[in-house]
Amino acid sequence: MPPMQCLSSPLTARIFSDCLAPQNTRLLTYSSASSTDSPRRRDDSISSDDSTSDASLLQPWNPLLAIIPLENDEQEEREQALRDYKVTIEYKHLKSHAPGGVYLIPAIDNLRSFFGIIFIRRGPYTNGIFKFQLKLPPKYNDVNMWPQITFSSYVYSPYVDEATGSLDLKSAYAKWDPSRHYLVTVLTYLKKIFYAKNFADAKANVAAKELAEKEPESFRKKIDACVRESQKNMYTNDPDSTAKFTEEQVSHRVLRDLLKHHIRNESQVTKQSVLAQIDKARKV
């Protein structure tokens, strides 16, 4: 059953109602990793264990444990609805726990498809703007149901397949454990690959790994070219993407000036104040 179709069913609505009941949820403690621009690591190589604690997740009470047996089709629909609900909970928690510089926006017509952008502020990829798509399998939140990240921007990295743009997640997480691994785990790992200095564990692009080891200057030049290309193609958008860039227009400049003039400190920033300035800019 397609995800959006599943979400619209009466059964799903009933499940969500059960799951949203306060007495049926419990909050796991969140152990925050460093959210600075230079990611935390034990050493210079990428370690998948570093990001397993970067999550805060409401674990819903499982209504399947408190009901009489269902027909196979209805039970499968209920289980799928619960998976859908968990995805929405994970995405909600990205609002406060996503790594700095990483943005993820869901697709309009698919609960398990997201469009993302990462802005690199330090390190060898400084000023890079890389776009990617994150897809979740239908049974995501089951064991060994890995997410898939594919860069639409060209990324020259030992951790990214040069031909397909796929980020190698299975090498980092040999077993996907839904009790330890979440969307925030994947995004944290995605950010870390842009700061790595030791590529001993990289497998996706062996040629890039060897170049980094044997000819670091040539490797750096390829990274610089990769960053320039990401900037050049910033306004090239996927037609289906929900994360798009548009070139600056007069209304954008007007809005920026209005915001600077009317909102002078953080305490004045409210949704209403920003919308008011946007409305003024539209009339220009």
Task: Describe the structure in brief.
This protein has 284 residues and is an alpha+beta fold.
Q: On the 0-100 scale, what is the average pLDDT? A: 79
Order of helices and strands: HHEEHEEEEHHHHH
Helicity, as a percent range: 25-40%
The structure class reads alpha+beta
Largest sheet: spatial strand order? 3-4-5-6
Q: What value does the Rg take, in angstroms?
A: 21 Å
* Strand percentage: 5-15%
Enumerate the spans where pLDDT stays under 50 for 5 or more consecutive residues.
Answer: 1-44, 50-58
Q: Describe the global form.
A: flat
Number of helices: 8
Alpha-carbon distance between the two ends: 47 Å
Number of strands: 6
Query: What kind of sheet is the major sheet?
Result: 4 strands, antiparallel
